[in-house]
Amino acid sequence: MIVLKSPDEIEKIAKAAKIVAEVLLQLKEVVSPGMTTDDLNRIAAEHIRLRGGIPTFIGYRGYPKAICTSVNEEVVHGIPGPRELKEGDIVGIDCGVTLDEYVGDAAMTMGVGQVSESAVRLMQTTQEALMRGIDCVVDGARIGDIGYAVQSYAEAKGYSVVRDFVGHGIGRQMHEEPQVPNFGLKGCGPRIRVGMVLAIEPMLNEGTHEVSVLKDKWTVVTKDKKLSAHFEHTIACTQDGPRILSVL
Ligand code: MF3
Ligand code: CO
């Protein structure tokens, strides 16, 4: 069952998602060689609590941290720890915040210091693929339209799209129906309606779309160890079209 949200509920999700945006933009400003992924987690958790929010990820299926930090060939769900970031790395930061019983969720991949042109191109393409998906969040469209828009753009640029992890509805729960794949067919899947709130989160790989999970049971990596990037926004379908909630 897909739960539609009232305008009041959408405002609550927007308040939570705004805190997520603050965290991501703050981390993008401070991230630098020599910092550990745990440093990023600490900054995120402090900011969330300063704003009166709850880090949604902590305790989610036993997940231990406030954010996910996925470096280079890590796709999603990397766990912050003592790893030092180095010049040229790219790091995907994923963050969820619960405020007043509603959840916001967003992610962004950022370069550490100066990064290669190919890494910049991968990150920019992933962000643009997300925007193409977001453009499909209009009343009467289909969930498959989103996946089609993301996949066709990504593949035209020479990248593959991860299949094993998908976006999702969001509201009182971080993960609600429907699932929002980053691949698919135009005109297929559930119909999008005003009041739906979706987290769209494409993961693009330089090589194969295939991924594996490390022994820590969380960290998802590309099978060929090539680079991957991940961007995510929380978006409401309104009468005026898509409204991105995870912004300042
Ligand atoms: N934002 C991600 C998602 O939508 C990550 C959540 S996994 C967690 O699934 F365990 F870290 F919470
Ligand atoms: Co998500």
List the helices and strands and how they pair.
Layout: H1 7-30, H2 37-50, E1 54-55, E2 67-71, E3 74-76, E4 90-99, E5 102-111, H3 117-134, H4 143-156, E6 160-161, E7 167-169, E8 176-180, E9 197-200, E10 203-205, E11 211-213, E12 220-222, E13 228-230, E14 233-238, E15 241-244
Antiparallel strand pairs: 1-4, 2-4, 3-12, 4-5, 6-10, 7-8, 7-9, 9-14, 10-13, 11-12, 14-15
Helix pairs in contact: 1-2, 3-4
Bound molecules: 2-amino-4-trifluoromethylsulfanyl-butyric acid (MF3) and cobalt (II) ion.
Cobalt (II) ion (CO) binds at residues 105, 168, 199, 201, 232.
Can you offer a commentary on this structure?
By secondary structure, the protein is α+β, with helices and mostly antiparallel strands. The protein has one domain: Creatine Amidinohydrolase (Alpha-Beta Complex), CATH 3.90.230. It contains four helices and 15 strands. It has helices spanning 7-30, 37-50, 117-134, 143-156, and strands at 54-55, 67-71, 74-76, 90-99, 102-111, 160-161, 167-169, 176-180, 197-200, 203-205, 211-213, 220-222, 228-230, 233-238, 241-244. A five-stranded antiparallel sheet has the order 8-7-9-14-15. Strands 1, 2, 4 and 5 form a four-stranded antiparallel sheet that branches. Strands 3-12-11 form a three-stranded antiparallel sheet, with no helix packed on it. α1 runs antiparallel to α2 and α3 (117-134) runs antiparallel to α4 (143-156). It is globular and about 45 Å long. The protein starts with 6 loop residues before the first helix and ends with a strand. The mean pLDDT is 98. The site of cobalt (II) ion (CO) has 5 residues, from loops.
